[in-house]
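User: structure tokens for this one?
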Amino acid sequence: RSRKLGLVVNTAKCEILTNDEEIADRFRSVAPDIKHVRKSTAMLLGAPIGDEQSVNDVLAVKLQDLRRLAQRLKLLDTHDALFLLKNCFSIPKLMYTLRSAPCYTHQLLSEYDDVLRSTLESVLNTSMSEDVWNQATLPVANGGLGIRKATQVALPAFLALVAGSQPLILELLPRRLQDVSGTSDPVFTVAVSEWETRVHSAPVEPPFATKQKDWDKAL
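Assistant:
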């Protein structure tokens, strides 16, 4: 019936996510063009959902993009370059990934911050000491330029996203999976423990737990 309406599945654009070769072979017997993706490199709507390798792959691409954009910013006027760096090319280009996966432990975020710092120095034609750089990365409300460090934002971004998604997660998943998902997911509880270690304080409680700025403010 779907074919009569012009709805035909393009198997070349479909993916089967599994580490089981037997299951993949069964799908290929029906759809030879289907793409077999292993769990370690799994992606969903641009977000890494596999293991650490999938997160590393995404962050590596983001880092490469930032380096390319940094070279092009040098061709612009200072004010324009600073505006684009702050509002478009720095953390805004990375925020979706930071909120979608636990990126806060990955070394590539430190490299991302290094590129941000060198780019800002190039745009402003100045050299910044460690203290100056740290103040520049504070929010504007705290006397900074608002060009946040990826290493600072990654943890509160992830915590706020999971807490905010909790009601929807409970609606979507069957009861047997709810005890290991959302705010009960071991990945989330480890992230909360890391936040508690950094700020020496109890975690943010609902309804404020859904707001990134409340996790961020304590840090």
